[in-house]
Every structure is written in structure tokens, then in C-alpha cells.
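I can't quite decide. Please look over this sequence plus C-alpha cells:

:::
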Amino acid sequence: MEIRRYIEEDRPFLRTLYLASRKANWHWLNASAWQLEDFDQIIIGERVWVAIEQGYRVGFAAVSVNDNFLHSLYIAPGWQRRGIGSALLDEVETTFTSIGALKCLSANTAALAFYLQRGWHRVSSGESELGSYELMHLRK
């Protein structure tokens, strides 16, 4: 597997991946208004890494480097549970200069379990337009 920085040629593939991953994993939400272009908004100002496996773009992570904040970690539905999320998270965690942070939707129990297994800790919870979330930290 290759993890590399985002290039503009990745955009159409990652748009599709982002939409498909949200529909597959956030099944409790109404996806009727979601669009391919939603991807464009979530990467503004972010450092983005792309996972490539067997010639396919299979996942990405987007981070606000100045804040040590992981905003996005998405894996294509057919490629989940193959270590791709762990590889992307390994890359992201190397960039943290202090405590890493992320928010994970509380209803996304698979993602919460993944982050907890990786050593992240719940520090608080809150509400967003998508529902309740857990704020998590990773000590550097």
C-alpha cells in the first residue's frame, strides 16, 4: 500500500469515495441531500493523504495540521477492515506536534471502537448538525 499526499487528479475519485463511504457507514442519517461536491468543502485548508492499493484510491485522511485535528478519515466501502485506516492514521499521527484531536459521531460505533483500539481517548461529547459526537484525544 502507498500513502501519499493529495494531488488534484485525485479529486473525482475521492469525491465518489467520500459519498459512498458516508452512505455505507452513516446509515442512520438522511443522505438525500449529499453530493459529490461535499468533498470539496471538507478539504479546504487541510493536508490530505491518499491511500493507494492495487492501483486504486481506497481511502483518504484530511488534517488541520496547525490544530493537530483529524477532520476526515474515510475508506471505500469495499476496502474497509484491511488495514487502510490504520495506515492512514499512522501517517496522520506522525504530523501531530502535540495532542491530536478528532470528533467522531457517537452513532458511528465501528469508528469509535477503531479509535479507542488505536489509543485515542474520549475527553468530552457534544452535539452537531449530524447528531451527538465524541471529542477524542491522542497523547503524543
About this structure: The CA atoms of residues 68 and 96 lie 5 Å apart. The radius of gyration is 14 Å.
